[in-house]
Amino acid sequence: MSRNIFGNYNREGRLIDAVAIVGTTPIVGPQPSGGQYLEGLDGLCLQLVSSGSSGGTVAGAWLIEASNDFSGGGAPTLNDSSSGGTWSDITALFKTPSGGAIAAVVSGGTNQFAQVTSRLFARAIRVTFTPTGGAGNVSCLAFGSGIT
């Protein structure tokens, strides 16, 4: 029996590093590939963080997506998409500890913990924050577990 590791060396668990909001440009993580292999994990939790800066606020929405044909930025192999994958919205599969859905950010300074509510069978995941206004930073940290 072994434990699977989530993330890349020196980037374990980081889907979005602290990134400054620029207008309404979506922030997709992880960078630069735009996707993270799940490496056979069947449990996953996320910590979604936003912070206002200089008295400002950041507002927007989180989107979590999964793909089974993501090629990781390299040359596509069997069943891989050369376009970077076909992505499906799985945000509704994640719940907060109180059982609620991931909330939209309406002002800076939020910290949401969300866990997948059932086993997650997907090759790769990506997280996007789409700002609607304000100023500040966002980040997303992840932890996953799996036994092989």
Overall description:
The radius of gyration is 15 Å and the shape is globular. It starts with 13 loop residues before the first strand and ends with a strand. Strands 1-10-4-8-7 form a 5-stranded antiparallel sheet, with no helix packed on it. Strands 2, 3, 5, 6 and 9 form a 5-stranded antiparallel sheet that branches. The mean pLDDT is 78. It contains no helices and 10 strands. It has 148 residues and is an all-beta fold. The protein has a single domain, classed as Jelly Rolls (Sandwich).
Strand order, main sheet: write it out.
Answer: 1-10-4-8-7
The name of the CATH topology is Jelly Rolls
Structural class category: mainly beta
Shape: globular
Strand content: 35-45%
Terminal CA distance reads 5 Å
What is this entry, summarized?
The chain is built from no helices and ten strands.
